[in-house]
Amino acid sequence: MTYEQLSVGDSASMEKTISESDVYTFADVTGDFNPVHLSKTHAEQSLFGERIAHGMLVGSLFSSVMAMQMPGPGGIYISQSLEFVAPVKFGDTVTATVTIKEKMEKRRVRLACSAVNQRGKVVVQGEAVVLPAK
Amino acid sequence: MTYEQLSVGDSASMEKTISESDVYTFADVTGDFNPVHLSKTHAEQSLFGERIAHGMLVGSLFSSVMAMQMPGPGGIYISQSLEFVAPVKFGDTVTATVTIKEKMEKRRVRLACSAVNQRGKVVVQGEAVVLPAK
Fold it and tell me: To which H or E segment does residue B93 belong?
């Protein structure tokens, strides 16, 4: 979608159950082998009680929604902020939603980003700025 | 490292050559199949001229440095901001560095994050807030 086709309030989302395989693969690609993600033994003694997904894996779903749906391919990703509000455990189903919050100058759009789990609890939230394709 | 062991100016970094395989695997995990990452034909006609890595893949290296080195395992990731300043092409070698910028209240630390390519050009930059392990 172009800048002109977008309106404040427009939104798009994707839903994904975060698997053990996702987390292990994300660790391989990024080099983040923090035992809270990869070790049951360690994670059981942590604040979270069990292994959790990387926050950046969950945050990357926003990037995916923006690239695949709104504004869609051809957009240029300018910035992203993320707050890691609550843990995502293996098997949790995350719905990541982006909503146009502001049509900015220079044909950019600001999007509110919110990811919730299957109980509707916010797990990651933030904002993105994207320059949609012409 | 604990809050007490950290000083403003302390830094840590990791270096990685971003491969085609990294980008394809990141696409599989996140669902971001934007053709600018996965299609030579599409990318050749884009602003970038060739396929580029996902910005969030590069940004995730900061998370990795913080989890693996400083402050290290056991820290809690509170927030991350990222600006995608320049593209990372397949085969580029990225050095991601985090530097303690501020010791905040509530035993949190603010880290400056900067990723540069093999020519020393900044590709992604931002800030993170982490609660180090006790």
Answer: strand B93-103
Chain A CB contacts of B63 below 8 Å: 30, 32, 54-56
Quote the pLDDT of residue B44. 94
Q: What CA–CA distances, in Å, run from B56 to A39, A75, A105, B47, B110?
A: 24, 15, 24, 19, 20
Distance in angstroms (rounded) separating the CA atoms of residues A20 and A63: 21
Give domain limits for chain A: 3-131
* Topology classification of domain A3-131: Thiol Ester Dehydrase; Chain A (3.10.129)
pTM, to two decimals: 0.96
Which residues of chain B approach chain A closer than 8 Å at the C-beta? Answer: 14, 16, 22, 25-26, 28-36, 42, 46-47, 54-57, 59-61, 63-64, 67-68, 73-74, 76-84
Contact A32 B64 (CB under 8 A): yes
**What are the pLDDT tens digits along chain A (134 aa)?**
999 999 999 999 999 999 999 999 999 999 999 999 999 999 999 989 999 999 999 999 999 999 999 999 889 999 999 999 999 999 999 999 999 999 999 999 999 999 999 999 999 999 999 999 98
* Cα dihedral B86/B125/A12/A68 (nearest 10): 30
Close Cβ partners of A120 (under 8 Å, ≥ 6 residues apart): none
